[in-house]
Amino acid sequence: MQRIELFLNIYKCKQFVASDLQKLKNDVSQAADKLHCTKEYLETDRKDVCLQFMEIMQKMRRNELLMLHLLEVGSHNATANGKTAQSDTPQSMPLKELQNDHPSKMHLTDYSKSPFAARSKAKDMHFYDFDADITEEDFETIPKYLKGRMQLSELVTFLQKEVIKCFEEKYTLMYKHRKAVTNQHDLTAWKNYNSMQANFPDYKFITQDDLSHKSGKALDKKSYSKLQMLRHLHILQEVRSEGTVYFLWTYSK
Fold first, then answer.
1. Which of 58, 167, 203, 233 could form a disulfide with 248 if both were Cys (CB 3.0 to 4.6 A apart)?
2. pLDDT tens-place string over residues 13-44
């Protein structure tokens, strides 16, 4: 009887609290939507800040290398000028390469305007244009039938030591000034590379032959499978034209 009386008392109050309960329900729904939007905004903002930080660090590193190089060149030029003033038979002092424990690294556009591109002496160059990362999450997206028993470390090694190295060596030569290419073999390659670039003006590329020359042997089935994985990860794009297999660099962070 007490429960029945309690129910009747609550039922009598329904008309007074129904609208408040409905309003409370709507407020909860709106609050949940706003909380979700806030979370998405914060996540997007965090990613943008991280990207900006990485770009700033890359620019700072590039500027540091250029400043060190200019300081060294200025020092040698001052020494050469001093010797010229003291001697009736001046001798020109060749510019020295930037000496440090790490290979030079810069953007291709900066390299093409730097003193390195005007020198015939080969230098081990690295470029930010060919930076690429493969995370565990990326690797897990590759179909099982394609990667088989291959480990992430093996694919990363192939990317760094074979593919990226091939791109860097090719574009170190391609972006040299014409007068700096004195070796006949390099000159022939320089002309071929630059004529082929007209086929893909918006992309950097290597060919299957470039990779074969780099490794000293024809691409085997395992190497080609690794290239297909890099295609799956949108690092490379394969294009066939006039009997030549091209691999375009399509990676973007």
1. 203
2. 777 777 777 788 888 888 888 888 888 888 78
H or E element at residue 89 = none
Adjacent-strand bridge partners of 127: 106
List the structure tokens of 68.
Answer: 């060190």
Higher pLDDT, 57 or 76: 57
How far apart, in Å, are the Cα atoms of 198 and each of 53, 64, 187, 191, 215? 34, 33, 17, 12, 26
Distance CA 175, CA 118 (A): 9
pTM to 2 decimals? 0.58
Looking at residue 103, its amino acid is: P
Verify that 131 and 59 share a domain, yes or no. no
Return the amino acid letter for 39.
Answer: K
Domain limits for position 194: 105-249
Q: What angle do CA 249, 252, 253 make, to 5 degrees?
A: 145
Residue 86 scores a pLDDT above 60: no
Is 75 inside any structural domain? no
CA distance 169 to 123: 9
Tokens representing residue 57 in the block: 């660090």
Residue appearing with tokens 């990676």: 251
